[in-house]
Recover the amino acids of this structure.
């Protein structure tokens, strides 16, 4: 596989959320607003990339029967380490991220990529695969965060855009259902639908 | 994939655990003083914020000494030590409770009549965009002007704006908001002995 494809494919026919169907849980949880979605996207990208790199370096020494727990230990240690350093030196950033620590460690994308890619590929390829998948995940998060915050709260990045446009004065009301988790699932479904209708390769033969 | 012996596997697991534990311990211990300093400054920032003073992490200690008259604590009925802070116009009480995923806490400034002058909330791991919204000014400011004298404040959907014991809850965060309501009720019961004992009769208990 070409190096560039490792970054590019997760955006299209190998997207972690819409094609691999990984990381759905965290994607429902953090996309009620745009800002947490972006923070989560960046955090996951950093963690998947680094974890992929480390596991790939260790891959030949890891006994297959305990590989999952080894992966989990590496990921947890990495996330806690980053959080500790942030708490000491850039406290405000760590406040923002502390909420995500648990969500990142248990994110299926991290484990999924370690298991599917880093365990059997070279370190550089694994690093690129991690970056690609993190960003591919992030792009869906940002789309969901954008739609849900705009229609659920009438704001974007906290800025009251609908209020400034005067939509409330002409009878518009925020749609509370968009904030709820089921709506994220429905939106993911719609994205998958659009993606599959454009990409014949992804359609299952019936 | 090559086979590994059981002995190798066991040693590998132990070795990995030891290395990770060592690294984390070293990092955590060496960074602790800095982290504690940050946390302490943050607590002071939060307390100052309830009385309307915006402090940065650097000048929090200085402003705190200037504006907060004393830190006092009393022993509650269940034996726990409850702190409170006095300032010119009243007291700041400390709130502790549980949200959906972990602890939530906050501070609330009350004047001598039990009217809320300001509040701040924070949390450890509530869902971003939903329960985590309790940490925003937008949420905390809903408490200003409400009363904590005869009843605790209750969070509910579509709260009556004129009712001084009701505050609008956050939609999609029912569990976290219930946690806040419980936390307020607990604090109310703990602090009522000191705050309102002079002015209120005991017949409500």
């Amino acid at each position: 596989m070409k190096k560039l494809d490792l970054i590019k494919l997760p955006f299209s026919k190998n997207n972690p959320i819409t094609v691999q169907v990984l990381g759905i849980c965290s994607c429902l949880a953090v996309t009620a607003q745009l800002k947490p979605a972006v923070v989560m996207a960046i955090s996951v990208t950093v963690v998947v990339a680094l974890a992929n790199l480390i596991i790939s370096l260790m891959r030949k020494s890891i006994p297959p029967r305990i590989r999952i727990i080894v992966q989990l230990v590496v990921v947890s240690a990495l996330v806690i380490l980053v959080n500790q350093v942030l708490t000491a030196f850039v406290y405000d950033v760590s406040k923002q991220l502390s909420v995500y620590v648990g969500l990142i460690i248990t994110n299926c994308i991290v484990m999924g990529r370690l298991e599917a890619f880093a365990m059997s590929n070279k370190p550089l390829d694994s690093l690129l695969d991690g970056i690609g998948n993190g960003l591919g995940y992030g792009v869906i998060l940002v789309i969901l965060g954008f739609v849900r915050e705009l229609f659920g709260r009438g704001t974007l990045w906290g800025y009251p855009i609908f209020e400034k446009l005067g939509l409330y004065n002409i009878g518009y009301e925020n749609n509370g259902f968009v904030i709820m988790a089921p709506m994220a699932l429905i939106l993911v479904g719609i994205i998958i639908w659009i993606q599959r209708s454009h990409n014949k390769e992804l359609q299952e033969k019936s | 994939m090559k086979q590994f012996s059981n002995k190798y596997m066991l040693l590998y697991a132990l070795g990995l655990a030891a290395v990770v534990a060592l690294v984390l311990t070293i990092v955590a211990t060496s960074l602790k003083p800095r982290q504690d300093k940050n946390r302490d400054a943050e607590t002071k920032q939060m307390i100052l914020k309830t009385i309307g003073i915006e402090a940065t992490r650097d000048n929090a200690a200085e402003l705190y000494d200037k504006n907060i008259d004393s830190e006092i604590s009393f022993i509650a009925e269940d034996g726990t030590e409850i702190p409170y802070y006095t300032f010119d116009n009243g007291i700041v009480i400390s709130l502790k409770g549980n949200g959906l995923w972990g602890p939530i806490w906050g501070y609330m400034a009350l004047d001598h009549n039990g009217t809320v002058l300001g509040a701040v909330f924070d949390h450890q791991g509530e869902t971003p965009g939903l329960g985590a919204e309790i940490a925003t000014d937008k949420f905390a400011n809903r408490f200003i002007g409400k009363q904590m004298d005869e009843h605790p404040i209750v969070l509910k959907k579509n709260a009556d704006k004129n009712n001084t014991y009701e505050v609008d809850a956050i939609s999609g965060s029912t569990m976290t908001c219930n946690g806040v309501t419980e936390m307020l009720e607990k604090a109310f019961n703990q602090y009522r002995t000191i705050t309102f004992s002079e002015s209120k009769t005991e017949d409500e208990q």
